[in-house]
């Protein structure tokens, strides 16, 4: 998956914070969840607008 399909940076969306494309979910949220011991499945349940492919595509 191309990075442009995964990440969007737009000053109109969360002041330019990198978000998952097509969402308003900050990329940082995934890393925060994983660092806190939250599973990928739980993250995806919490943020249903983020696809599994997008989340895995960051790695």
UniProtKB/TrEMBL annotation:
Q: Which domain of life is it from?
A: Bacteria
What SUPFAM superfamilies does the annotation carry? Homeodomain-like (SSF46689)
For this protein, the record's InterPro entries field holds: DUF433 (IPR007367), Homeodomain-like_sf (IPR009057), WH-like_DNA-bd_sf (IPR036388)
Name of the protein = DUF433 domain-containing protein
Source species of the chain = Dyadobacter psychrophilus
């Amino acid at each position: 998956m191309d990075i442009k399909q995964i990440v969007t940076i737009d000053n109109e969306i969360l002041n330019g914070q990198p978000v998952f494309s097509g969402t308003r979910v900050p990329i940082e949220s995934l890393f925060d969840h994983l660092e806190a011991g939250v599973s990928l499945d739980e993250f995806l349940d919490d943020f249903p607008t983020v696809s599994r492919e997008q989340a895995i595509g960051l790695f």
